[in-house]
Amino acid sequence: MAQIVIIGAGMSGLAAASRLATLGHRVTVCEASGTYGGQVGRYERDGFAFDTGPTLLTLPAVYRDLALKTGREPLEELVGLGPVEPESRHLFPDGTDLVLPNASRGGVGQALDAAFGAGSGERWGEVTNRARAVWEATRRPLLEEPLPEDPEPLFRDPYPAPPRRGLARLSRRTRTLADVAERELGGHPGLTALLQEHALRFGLDPREAPAGATVLPYMEQSFGVWYVQGGMRALADAVHRRCGQRGVEFRFDTPVTEVLTEGGRACGVVAGGERLPADLVLSCTQDLAGLAGHAAAAREPAWGRFSVLLALRGTRPAGTPVRTVVHAHDNARELDALTDHPDLPRHPTVQIHRPDDPSLVPDSGHEAVTLTVTVPTWDELAELAPDFDAYADHLLDHLAGAGLDLRERIAWRELLTPDVLGPHTPPSLAGAGGRFLAPPGRSPLPGLHLIGATVHPGGGLARAGMSASITATGIGPA
């Protein structure tokens, strides 16, 4: 039996704690804030409740495995879980209204043909077929196993080269998502916007992200998108309860200020001014400089996020999808505002989250809605001193122009700025010479393991859960 200290009670910390305690280890979790869940936060006011981080769950198998391995119960006994149907609605600047079914690649193709014209679904389907090859090639090394000691094979993009005929044979190989949109989707504005929306949602620039990033829409369309009743915070609550059942000790409002070492390996932490001995230390913190005398390898800063929480008067309209996307007026201008000329994008891609969940509103005569936009990094925006209140007005006008006018129903709104929400944490992707790989969970300091969204296998709830699983499996039973 090992004494293990985990720094941080985010989702990876909770998942690791429950797994390791089930394996017979003594586990203490030190959390600097007063609660658990990390990015899986919650804002409550006047009977309304909003998720302030992830809103929908993909790859629920990760948390199903956690539930079974730590308690022999199906996940559905711990939380209310169901597939979202339809998966999403998309409103385009030309007036096109596209509704995509959940977990149905055939249904997606039919919907695309109906919205964009015959052949659109076939083109999209050919891309997702090639993305399936990426999934099969990278599922284990980029999701289920530690990052290889020699990651160089993952520097190459496994996205298969599409058949090229005529003069196309002379052009360079498809390398980026933007190449996929131009060459394989024919530059169709609607299909291009769909692909770009997936990239922006993960904080990726489609002009830089490898073609293999097509695995992201493939995963959603193949394995589905799921909603947790009570919001995603209910999932954090369930994993926290499981930790308690397995005897995990939590110390909240207890920041770790130092990782102790002895004989060249981690031997404990200083937390809340107290020395806590440990055989192993797991850290979810992004920066270990000053803790263990070194900093973990880091990825390039990702774009930020801006959200508007809307408390609406009036009943949620019947048949309203949980997720609606209002697409940008101009994809190129949106990317320019995110990169070359940083500013709050005008008429951008907006994610609208409208859950059908009575537990999130004071009564049936109200609705809780969240708008989220990808914006430049906080460091870039802070120099501009942006007026976020005026920008929220702009977003509401933008939605109204797309036929989704919520302005007259607003009882109140709350703004979550990029400095509060933090940056996107993209998943690990193969290709591009390794630029999109998250750092390994191996630490230069023996006895110290790194877990969470900023290390392998990268960001997102599923990958946070897999980070914990990979590390707990490597440590093994007591």
From TrEMBL:
SUPFAM superfamilies: FAD/NAD(P)-binding domain (SSF51905). This is NAD(P)/FAD-dependent oxidoreductase. It comes from Kitasatospora kazusensis. Residues 145-166 are annotated as: Disordered. Residues 11-473 form the Amine oxidase domain. Signal peptide: none annotated. It comes from the Bacteria.
